[in-house]
Amino acid sequence: MLRAGDVLRFAPDEIEDFRKIGLDFDGAQTRGDIEQALAQWVGTLNEERPDLLEKIAVAMAKAKGIPLPARLTRVR
User: Fold this and answer.
1) pLDDT by residue (tens digit) across 3-60?
2) What integer pLDDT is reported at residue 76 of this predicted model?
3) Distance CA 45, CA 30 (A)
4) 28 exposed, middle or buried (CB, 10 Å; 0-12, 13-18, 19+)?
5) How remote is the C-alpha of 8 from its chain's centroid?
6) Which pLDDT tens digit goes with each residue over 5-14?
7) In this structure, what are the phi and psi dihedrals at residue 71, rounded to the nearest 5 degrees?
8) Residue 61 to residue 66: CA distance in whole angstroms
9) Which of 24, 45, 59, 64 has its Cβ near the most Cβ atoms within 10 Å?
10) Shortest CA distance to 40 belongs to which of 13, 18, 60?
């Protein structure tokens, strides 16, 4: 990823690597674009594989040394 101020650019191989895990950064040019793609990815994971999303959240919290918030109950 290359940055020039607020503008971001990804190399084609980076885009392909992200696609392998379900992230679509094609056309993303700003931090907002990336945040939107990440939010969509997390939403999909939450619907399809909440167990995997929880594992990712735990690993990220552990790496940062921060506690996870209390578990919330999902209401549909």
Assistant:
1) 777 788 888 888 888 888 888 887 788 888 889 989 999 999 999 999 998 888 888 8
2) 59
3) 23
4) buried
5) 16
6) 778 888 888 8
7) -70, 135
8) 5
9) 45
10) 18
